[in-house]
Amino acid sequence: RFNESSGATVADSVGSLPLTLSGTYTRDSDEAPTGRKSTYFGGTDSNAVSVGSGSIPTGNAARTILIVTKTVSYARGCVFSHGEGMARKGFGITGNDSESIVVNYWTWSEDLPWAQASMFSDGAWHLLAATYDGNRAFGAYKDGEQISRVLTQNLSTTAGNFYVGSAFGTSNRYVGNVADIIVFDRALSKAELDRLYLALNS
User: Can you give the pLDDT of all 202 residues of the chain as single tens digits?
Assistant: First the structure.
């Protein structure tokens, strides 16, 4: 949760993987639909980073990574990234040069163009989720809306750091607010994500 009012540590609610903030950020920022405050990332030099992967799924393991965020600019901004920026060794959600949002596996030919950035960069809070089932099928969700694709090969996400607000350290800085990130060790169904969306907005 990114709702702490001060300090440079983002606490992990299960205690296994705290993140450390750096650069230009603002704590105790706008309130999300969850009723909790958020952290604002300024886009020039800010991000939050873990040390290692903790219990976040790696390799070809199934996973769902869900994020509550809002922005007014997605141009090449990376909401989160995990692993490393090599083919199928990374996992994330980022913007690209054509102003589309993609679920990114750093294979480019298989990254999933999601939607025009204008659908997200409206200054409203959105629930974004990226899922992978461990058998080449992955999905992307915005507020319960789904797109999907089957990869030609399995993932091999490395046990690198987990970044929020940048791609693997210093590139593709994100401008916007982040309130919550939730990681699951399986691919949630659309019905489950719909229930989470309703719960987070209630």
Answer: 888 888 888 877 776 788 899 888 899 889 998 888 999 998 888 888 887 778 889 999 999 999 998 887 766 688 898 988 888 888 888 876 555 667 777 776 677 766 665 667 788 888 888 899 999 888 888 887 887 777 778 889 998 889 998 888 778 888 889 998 999 999 999 899 888 888 877 6
Q: Which residues contact 86 (CB under 8 A, 6 or more apart)?
A: 106
Q: What is d(CA 120, CA 132) in angstroms, rounded to the nearest whole number?
A: 22
E strand or H helix that includes residue 125: none
Rounded to an integer, what distance in angstroms lies between the CA atom of residue 23 and that of residue 30? 19
Question: What does the longest C-alpha to C-alpha distance in the chain come to?
Answer: 45
Question: Rounded to the nearest 5°, which phi and psi values hold at 67?
Answer: -140, 135
Q: How far is it, in rounded angstroms, from Cα 175 to Cα 40?
A: 8
